[in-house]
Amino acid sequence: MVTAFEAMNAVGLVAFAIVGSLKAVEAEFDVLGVGVLGVLTALGGGATRDVLVGRVPAMLQSTADVSFALLGVALAVLLARRVGTTLLDHPAVVVPDAIGLAAFATTGALVGHEAGVSPFGVVVLATVTGVGGGLVSDLLLQRVPFVLADDFYATCAVAGSVAFWVVVAADQSTAVAAAACAGSTLGLRLLAIRGNWRLPTVRLSAES
Amino acid sequence: MVTAFEAMNAVGLVAFAIVGSLKAVEAEFDVLGVGVLGVLTALGGGATRDVLVGRVPAMLQSTADVSFALLGVALAVLLARRVGTTLLDHPAVVVPDAIGLAAFATTGALVGHEAGVSPFGVVVLATVTGVGGGLVSDLLLQRVPFVLADDFYATCAVAGSVAFWVVVAADQSTAVAAAACAGSTLGLRLLAIRGNWRLPTVRLSAES
Amino acid sequence: MVTAFEAMNAVGLVAFAIVGSLKAVEAEFDVLGVGVLGVLTALGGGATRDVLVGRVPAMLQSTADVSFALLGVALAVLLARRVGTTLLDHPAVVVPDAIGLAAFATTGALVGHEAGVSPFGVVVLATVTGVGGGLVSDLLLQRVPFVLADDFYATCAVAGSVAFWVVVAADQSTAVAAAACAGSTLGLRLLAIRGNWRLPTVRLSAES
What we know:
Chain A is mostly helical. Chain A is 74% helix and 0% strand.
């Protein structure tokens, strides 16, 4: 179980870094900016979660996660020169990115549960861990964050973390809850990609 | 005293959530984005303040504040479909929003005072608590934050928190200081709305 | 040694506040917004670093740094009315700004070293301290952060902090490492200004 989860996490770090770096290449950032955006997309969500629960961010202390993020940046630069940024919609990027979303949401839910936060806090920390890095990167790129405007993405992390605390509330172990969170986040995201799902917007009154 | 203050706080949470949600509806965010912006506008300032003084944000632990914020989101969605977003300038939104600004600035000043920060720190924490949520929401909406560019809004929180520490420095109780902060923030904001006050901008030399 | 460093820090605080305030004047923010942007540019990087390592930001506790930042804001307002914002590219602003970058990066590296973070963590904290305030200010001004897109600026802080931990790893004292960090950051930045250096962007494949 631990090994499968760690593999998902590593896949996610590389995929998130590729996504962030390619967006920065598209926006014509310089190589430092490309590196910063890649690393931030991969590690920013977890760092924000750690700050919220009063921990020093793991990325400042361990080096494994940083190495995966830097690997993603290097891959993105190589790929951008060969294939271009159309990769951003390619299954070879989108599926690992979904795996990362599931792994990160699950880590966030686990950290929240350990820190003794409320059910709402578990959802917030899972979602922040999953989408926080991409959201901050979009801000730096001066884009409206895609996770809030037009994609079925953060919703998967919200649903996964609700599954997490339903399982915990039913007196199951956190390992079962983590598997439920990762499975439902990943399954939902893959269905959303395949079906091109979008959440509805709020209809305004005709007069306004 | 406590009850009046708690009522002001609840009114503010609902009003801030309505404002944030309506802005997100205007920007055509999906329903998740509308919920996130509403909750963030209501709870983001307090969460930022808590992180700054080294606390786990209250919103991750208690559920009362979260409930008021979610109530505001629900009201905003209902109102948007019936009345539209012109509500944003309506007294039924603007006055409760002013009450919230006063309650939040006062909470920020009290937390800063307890944490033993400097007078400047009290002003920063009161202002961050009062306007931080709206400011982050404006960033996510890709708008120049209204509180910094063209409204007499954050200034009320600054003035209220200065009143707070003048009263504390005069050896009065923090309850008196809190009342002075809430009263002067609210009074100033209501006058500013009524008189359509704006701060001046800095005049540039004719040559530049 | 301490005195020279404190002088560099004070020069940097004033210069950073001038830069932030002048940008806000250019963007036609009101006087409160000009003050907030100036103070945030000067103190925001250090505050972010403190939050990352679990400290209450120094700016909430001491008053010396705040005074230098406010002095910079006052100077910026006076100068804007006399000279205009062309000052932003003037050596009288750009050179003190480089001194500040060196002082802030060095403080960040020292704080990271004391907190026992990884070498990557030292680089992150030095860079955040040096460029974090300007980066957040650019976000509030709705500008793509210049440090990521088209200037040889953050790179100097990265190089300086790498120098820091090379010297520490070679068993030298932190005072020597700090001098190496400050010297290499400042030297590199001055060369970059003089030579109008820019980092390359990533070339995309011809097809995309």
